[in-house]
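Q: Mind making up any chain with structure tokens?
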Amino acid sequence: MKIWWQSSTPIHRLHDYRSTLAEHLNSVKRPETEIDINGVDDGSMDLHYNAVVAVNSYGPGGVLNKIIQAADQGYDAVAIGCFLDPAMQEAREVVPIPVLGLGEASMLMACMYGHRFSGIAFHNKQAQYYDRKAFEYGLSARHISFGNLGIDFNQVQTAFTSPETMTGTFISESRRLVAQGAEVILAACATVNAIIRREKIQEVDGALVMDCNAVLLKLTEAMAELSQSAGLRASQRLLYQRPDRRSLGEWMKIYGFRSSPQLRP
């Protein structure tokens, strides 16, 4: 089984993040699973701005373009390792393989580990966005408004070498959310999750701190297997109805999409 892990960042430049993530994913994958970690060809680190996430997602060499590459290269499924679930719905519309997003997968799984969940974003703008996603996914009755660490994405990177400040804030925010009724806490960013998992923070005041990256990978493996063994595919009625390959090829030319990586150092 071949899984394409897609970051919304130029992860080829984020060496601490990439190595920590790879070590973790390889520790929880099935023995026969191959995981390829990919990012966007280029992109800004100002990921607390929705506009940056949009450009990283939909531009040439971005998330959607990369997922099309994954399908064309014979991968069995795609895991979008970003809690914003960038281009997830659009990708399900244009590729025939399972596409899962970190945010949706984590929120749905959290509902099986506790009645109410919350999470911690790295920035307050993202926390508000995640609250909107919970509503979009029909989970507003199960979710408590997300907290945040009060830092930007570049500051998150420093926590790979000096994690104490970030992890301390994470635990404090978790306690605040647990006091409001949260039973499951989500580290609402694949990068933050990589650090929280490495530092072995699995529980705060009795509430589960869910390993979102592991959940996404294991669900992606399961969806790939269901596709192969039971023939399950995204519905072709309405939302995920696919265009024909000729139309998709024309769109890729119009918008300058790439057939292979063009990573910018």
